[in-house]
Every structure is written in C-alpha cells, then in structure tokens.
Design goal:
about 450 residues; alpha/beta; Aminopeptidase; 8-stranded mixed β-sheet; 14 helices; 14 strands; globular; binds zinc ion
Length: about 450
C-alpha cells in the first residue's frame, strides 16, 4: 500500500518515476517452437508477467524475458501450461547492474586508463563528456569538441573531431556513432576505447586509420536515455521524448513506457514499413513521423554536412548485443541485397573483419543484412546514412555478448570486447583501402560473381 501511495504521489506531482530496482529479477531464455508458443511468450508480456528484452518474437529464435520475483511462480505456471521450456540465465539482475558500476579487480589487462577514463567499469554521461573536454585540452592541435545538437531534454549531443591533418584538402571522413539505444552500455565503452587507440596506439595500422581519416566521434547520441538508465531505469532503450504519452500499464508495461521514441526506427529509411511499431508503449516505437526526434534531426544534419566536406567512407553505429556486423539494407534479402550497390564489397569487408576479430579470443561475429542475421528493420541510422550518402562502408555493429548477460555485460568483458573490435576495424580498413575506396577508383557496382559467392557464404553461416 505504501509503495502504491508513493507511486500515486509521483504521478500526481508529475515528477519522473521512482528509480526502478531489479532486485530478484530473473532473466530467462525461451525458444518458441510453434506459433502457439510464440503467442504464449507474447502474452507473458501482455499479462504483465515479464518483459521481453527482444524486439520481436519468432519461431525458433531465442528471446529473453525478465521476470520480477513476485511473478516468478505465475511465469513458471504459464510455461508448464504451454509445455514450453525456459533456461534461467540471470538470477538477480540488480546484482549484475551493481557489478557494472564497480571497477573490476586490477590486473594487467584491465588497469588501462587514459586521462581519467577507464575501461574497468561503465561511466556516466558527465564522466564521458568531461573526458572529451580533457582530450581537446590535451591535444589542442588534433582534437576539438563539437556539439551536433541538443536532445529532447536539452542536453548537448557532444562529440569530438580527431584530425591529424587539418590542412589536407581532399579529406577522407569517418564517423562513429555510439549509444543510439540507451541501455547498451558497452557501446560508449567501445567508442571511447577506439578514440584512445587513435590517440595513443603505436601500431602502424592503427596510426594509419587515425591519421589518414578525419574522425567524427559521438559516444552518446541519446544522452537523455543514457542518463535515465543511470538515474531511473537501467533497461531504458528509447530517447525521452514525452510527446506521445499514453498509459501503458494495461499492456503489462511500466505506465510511462511511452515516454520515448526508438531512435533507431526514427530515420527516413523506409520508415515504419517493417520491424517498427506505431504503439508508443513499445520499445520499437518509430515516432509519429520520420526524424520527429531532435536527436535524429541532429544526426541527419550532421551527416549531410560532413558528407559535403570530403570523401565520407565510414559510418559505424555501435549497439549491443548479439555479435553481428550488419550490412545495409535492413529491409531486403535474396537478390534484393543488390539495392545496396556495393553490397558484395561490404559483405566481404565484414567477413574479413569478423575473421580477424575471431583470432584473438575465438569470439564469433556473424555478418550480413539484418534480414539474414537478425530480423528486418526500418528507420535505422546506418541504413539511412547509406541511402543518403552512398557511403561505401556503413555498418551496425552489435557488440558482445550472445545474450548470456546481454545488456548487463560484466565490466571484465569491456577490454576484451574492445581489443577484438579494434582488430576488426583495422582489418576492415585494410580491405577497404585495398578495394580502392580511399582513392575512389573502384566501381561501386557489385559483380554478380561476388554476390553469388556472398550468397553462398551466407547460406553456409
Ligand atoms: Zn541497439
């Protein structure tokens, strides 16, 4: 009763929700084998028994569902009734959330630090933004901060430009986009590591990438959502736009789940056509129109601007989890992959990157279009960038892991994740250069033989 009163007061006063605890919440893995089982899993959320981590529920695809302790018996009863098996992956989400904010014990691998930034735990927006300022102050001739726009709650979307050759006239440009989805904390931890490597590595291959390209780096493009994952709800994914508020309690979700738009469904790329929702309560809510959100508008304007300034060759959008290098376009499969005119090259660059990545720790990344590796999507940033600029290399990278911890990846894995991703970026750059994209001499039409090979490889994966 007391909790209910506080909750009611919070709504009446119009303040943000009370910080949600995930104490005793379990996460289960379910693989529905029939359409009936798919329906049972979807109903678990509708009935308020659990909340799905995944955007879609499909036959023979793993889904993860988090279940509060007071619903655990009901959850198990529903599974028994539906003859469905489930595997418990996480026994207490709150313990893992606590772990993410505690530095891991120091050893040679995780003791790295650079100008106050560390990769032994996850960092707040303020810490990340301060670090960007410190980088600009420390490397005044190479690094400058830039604000691409402001969020719904008027926070800066801050990044840096790394430019070792400011006088170069024929610029080659790349962009790193982090944390479009708020809860994917490994994303800014990866982007910041890449920055550190660009500024400090002695590896000649890394030096080439760092110094031959003007890099535009934005570790957190959804700052409101990211802050909200620290202050209120660790599992928040969307931005914090409140214009489409509607009560969501009847769908078994948090009542204020509609206070946000999925930014990676909000871009003007076959918007709202597939893998997106018009229901504001859902995690894939695409907004009421393409680029309805200030964060999307900021990215759109920024990308158009840098595209006009030189040869724009790299766009990387970092997400988690599932270990994928996703190749545009996310709405096509079969021969329609040729709608991206250098699909064969993008597929090969991704394949070579994934092969290199695997060498360090054996981590397996799959690669290909979203349709072939994950599920169809529309309104995504990396697809929009490809369509808008015809950039040769635009990927969405889903970082670690495969779902053992998912969004709650332990900090022990940050540096191993970063090391292997850096290996992949270096290899992908090597292949991209070999293909002639720096000089712009390659034909951008994918040959039929390459695509046939791509398709065969795709089938074998
Ligand atoms: Zn994501």
């Amino acid at each position: 009763m007391k909790t209910y009163l506080v909750f009611l007061l919070t709504i009446i006063l119009g303040t943000s929700a009370i910080k949600q605890t995930f104490e005793g919440y379990k996460v289960y893995k379910i693989i529905p084998r029939t359409q009936d089982e798919v329906n049972v899993v979807k109903d678990l959320q509708t009935k308020g028994i659990g909340q799905l981590w995944d955007d879609q529920v499909n036959i023979n695809y793993e889904v993860r569902i988090m279940v509060p302790p007071h619903k655990d018996d009901e959850f198990k009863n529903e599974l028994v009734r539906g003859y469905i098996g489930a595997e418990e992956l996480i026994s207490d989400m709150q313990r893992l959330i606590g772990d993410q904010l505690q530095p891991v014990k120091r050893n040679s691998r995780n003791s790295e630090a650079f100008l106050g930034m560390t990769w032994d735990k996850y960092h707040t927006l303020d810490e990340i933004y301060k670090w960007l300022d410190d980088l600009a102050a420390t490397y005044p001739n190479i690094v400058k901060t830039v604000v691409m726009g402001r969020s719904f709650e008027n926070r800066e979307i801050k990044g840096i430009i790394i430019n070792y050759k400011p006088d170069k006239t024929d610029k080659v440009i790349g962009m790193l986009e982090g944390t479009l989805h708020a809860r994917e904390w490994i994303s800014p931890a990866t982007v910041s590591w890449i920055v550190k490597e660009f500024l400090t590595s002695n590896d000649p291959a890394v030096r080439s990438i760092a110094e031959d390209i003007e890099w535009h780096v934005f570790p957190v493009v959804n700052p409101d959502g990211y802050v909200y994952t620290f202050t209120d709800n660790r599992m928040w994914r969307k931005n914090r736009g409140t214009r489409n508020f509607t009560s969501c309690a009847a769908s078994g979700l948090l009542d204020d789940a509609s206070n946000g738009v999925d930014l990676n469904r909000n871009f003007d790329f076959v918007w709202m056509s597939m893998g997106a929702s018009s229901n504001p309560c859902l995690n894939t809510f695409a907004g009421l129109a393409p680029a309805s959100e200030p964060e999307t508008v900021a990215i759109v304007n920024y990308v158009k601007n840098i595209n006009s300034q030189g040869k724009f060759i790299y766009y990387y959008s970092f997400h988690s989890y599932t270990q994928l290098i996703v190749v545009p376009y996310s709405n096509v499969t079969g021969m329609d992959v040729l709608k991206a005119d250098n699909y064969g090259d993008m597929f090969e660059i991704a394949a070579r990157g994934a092969a290199k990545l695997r060498q360090r720790f054996g981590t397996i990344y799959r690669y290909g279009t979203a349709h072939d590796t994950l599920y169809v999507m529309s309104g995504t940033s990396f697809d929009w960038v490809k369509q808008e600029t015809n950039i040769p290399v635009s990927y969405l990278i889903e970082l670690r892991d495969l779902g053992e911890y998912g969004f709650l990846l332990p900090p022990e894995q940050i540096i191993p994740n970063n090391l292997e991703i850096m290996d992949a970026l270096v290899e992908m750059d090597r292949v991209t250069r070999q293909m002639g994209y720096y000089s712009g001499t390659v034909p951008v039409i994918c040959t039929l033989s390459v695509v046939t090979l791509c398709a065969l490889v795709s089938l074998l994966m």
